Amino acid sequence: MLPAMLLLVAAGMQFALYGLAAHAVDELVAEGGATGRSALGGIDDARAILRAETRQLSQGLIQSPHVTVTESAGDEVLVTMSASVPSLLPGVHLTVRASSGGPAQEFRPGA
Questions:
Q1: Model-level pTM?
Q2: In what order do the strands lie in the sheet with 76-85?
Q3: Distance (Å, rounded) from C-alpha 69 to C-alpha 32?
Q4: Residue 111: CB partners within 8 Å, gap ≥ 6?
Q5: Which helix (H) or strand (E) holds 101?
Q6: pLDDT one-digit tens code per residue, 29-65
């Protein structure tokens, strides 16, 4: 009975860790995307923010993060991120993914 309870507790903790990591990655990508689309920011600023924040998250909440920031010819900025979640259960490998995209903001005088 005790091993089953321990497995159930570990599974609950794994689920909670996954949810926390998914939320953190989603918020980070949203922040990077907003900075990348901002008239005062840009994709270089977005990359700098994402690098700094990803370094902090990589100290336990996520593993092996992969971040891309791209700007298309139509001034669309897209930020994507994927990362592994630390596993508490043997054989369980979970990945979180998030993306944020939209048109870059620009100042148009007289508009």
A1: 0.84
A2: 63-71, 76-85, 94-103
A3: 9
A4: none
A5: strand 94-103
A6: 999 998 888 877 788 888 888 888 888 887 888 999 9
